[in-house]
Backbone:
């Protein structure tokens, strides 16, 4: 029988070789592509230990990503609810302001046409604060919806194999979150406009059938500013959309595999949104330059 050293020596060598093998596996490529962690493990060592460690590591990371996406979805849903329910409570709206705004707006404008601005000024002060809070919540919703959309799109593009039911579900989630991005943009733009020019914003709250003023000149300048603000904000949105289109167009040729479908859908959505923003911009610039016809048409339609 050999000495204890003769027995332990080969065993130490075997353990050292095993450690080297596992270290090589742990050192295989981990690369980040569009925010999605993609793991490429070489199948150089076909052993149960290698497979177990690979599966455990990948499952842990992907499980963490799924939890983050789910948490983001919950945040987005909560913000959608908050943007429509929180502003009146935050600004301390009275029961009348919260439940009977059309009637209050109609009475305030009736006094305004008669020469008294007190009621309209008080209501406009509340309306400005309301829109400021709503715009802030909508801005947070916009950021959260963009992050959620990117995560869902990354998950769709990194799925393996042919398209299946799972891809349809993730694709539907991408469409839904993209719609929420559009909703958030509209809310931010509209509430910035209302916060800057609350009087003209209140005109939309006046119910149909309310008495029209004999002379709309009292609101002409305010109504022009209302559409000027919308033109400025829409111009900013249009510039961002055009920059995004340029970036997406430059990177279209380098998009691999199934990412091409998502990239094309993204580019198409950007183009359609840009065209819509251009139309809104042109309409508001025209109204800002000559607000009287649009103001008279508003009262005529009411």
Residues:
């Amino acid at each position: 029988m050999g000495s204890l050293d003769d027995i332990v020596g080969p065993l130490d060598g075997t353990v050292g070789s095993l450690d080297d093998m596992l270290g090589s596996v742990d050192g295989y490529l981990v690369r980040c592509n569009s925010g999605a962690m993609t793991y490429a493990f070489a199948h150089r060592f076909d052993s149960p230990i290698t497979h177990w460690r690979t599966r455990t590591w990948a499952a842990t990371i992907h499980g963490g990503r799924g939890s983050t996406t789910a948490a983001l979805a919950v945040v987005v849903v909560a913000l959608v609810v908050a943007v429509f329910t929180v502003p009146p409570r935050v600004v301390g709206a009275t029961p009348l302001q919260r439940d009977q705004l059309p009637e209050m707006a109609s009475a305030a404008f009736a006094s305004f046409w008669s020469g008294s601005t007190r009621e309209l000024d008080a209501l406009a002060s509340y309306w400005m604060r309301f829109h400021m809070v709503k715009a802030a919540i909508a801005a947070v919703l916009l950021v959260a919806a963009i992050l959620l959309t990117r995560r869902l799109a990354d998950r769709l593009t990194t799925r393996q194999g042919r398209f299946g039911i799972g891809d349809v579900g993730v694709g539907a989630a991408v469409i839904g979150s993209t719609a929420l991005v559009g909703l958030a943009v509209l809310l931010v733009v509209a509430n910035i406009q209302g916060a800057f020019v609350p009087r003209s914003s209140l005109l939309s709250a006046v119910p149909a059938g309310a008495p029209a003023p004999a002379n709309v000149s009292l609101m002409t300048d305010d109504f022009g500013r209302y559409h000027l603000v919308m033109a400025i904000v829409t111009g900013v949105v249009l510039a961002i959309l055009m920059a995004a289109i340029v970036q997406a167009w430059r990177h279209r040729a380098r998009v691999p595999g199934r990412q091409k479908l998502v990239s094309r859908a993204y580019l198409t959505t950007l183009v359609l949104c840009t065209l819509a923003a251009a139309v809104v911009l042109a309409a508001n610039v025209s109204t800002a330059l000559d607000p009287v016809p649009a103001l008279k048409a508003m009262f005529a339609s009411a």
